[in-house]
Amino acid sequence: EAGVAQSPRYKIIEKRQSVAFWCNPISGHATLYWYQQILGQGPKLLIQFQNNGVVDDSQLPKDRFSAERLKGVDSTLKIQPAKLEDSAVYLCASSSGGGASSPLHFGNGTRLTVT
Amino acid sequence: GQNIDQPTEMTATEGAIVQINCTYQTSGFNGLFWYQQHAGEAPTFLSYNVLDGLEEKGRFSSFLSRSKGYSYLLLKELQMKDSASYLCAVRGTGFQKLVFGTGTRLLVSP
After folding, report:
1. Nearest C-alpha of chain B: how many angstroms from A69?
2. pLDDT in tens, B4-22
3. Cβ A42–B44 below 8 Å, yes or no?
């Protein structure tokens, strides 16, 4: 089966600019996650979708970050305006939602550098 | 909330055995995952434990004690390719949020 697809792979922007990331999950996976991973740290959950509804966005900085999952498939994550501390890898993951044992499958991530 | 602790870094020799510990505190528990992450790559799934005890999968084994809030990942017959970060992650109840620890960077030397 095809894996989780993300684009772009790398992005460099200046602070206060905006940026968007795209994710296409594994076909049929109902649950989609966006994680932020700062160098040397573990992934931090930003937002979790179940189909096209948000089930957890408690750690999403809503003043600058937004995400949507139209039609319950693809998802985009946007940052506007970006800050230096947003430099990180943004990982998209999906799971089948078939139960607690269903593992997350990760994409290769988008490495964002804010200068 | 959830709190997950792992050692930051470990070193070991090729062919040896290493144990990576993870302790957690959580208000709801629905299983514990271990992931491997090579530098610059995505995390990949290694194991899942929800019941107490040891799960063995080839050279890798994972142990869970729910009463102690403790897990470990055991890597046997270490190979150079095992140099990576190992992430412990706890799944909560409800919508089954998965929270990761900071990861343990393992360096395997010849």
Report:
1. 17
2. 999 999 999 999 999 999 9
3. no
- From the list B24, B45, B26, the residue with the least C-alpha distance to A101 is B45
User: Does residue A27 belong to the interface with chain B, where contact is any CB pair within 8 Å?
Assistant: no
CA A50 to CA A29: how far, in whole Å? Answer: 9
Q: Does A34 touch chain B (CB under 8 A)?
A: no
d(CA B3, CA A104): 20
Amino acid in the structure at residue B24: Y
A24-65 tens-digit pLDDT = 999 999 999 999 999 999 999 999 999 889 999 999 999 999
Does A42 contact B102 at a Cβ distance shorter than 8 Å? Answer: yes
Can you tell me the distance from the alpha carbon of B104 to that of A34, in angstroms, rounded to the nearest whole number?
22
Please give the Cα distance from B66 to B34 (Å, whole number).
Answer: 15
Query: Which one of A33, A42, A91 has the shortest CB-CB distance to B101?
Result: A42
* Structure token digits, residue B92: 């909560």
Owner of token pair 């994550």: A77
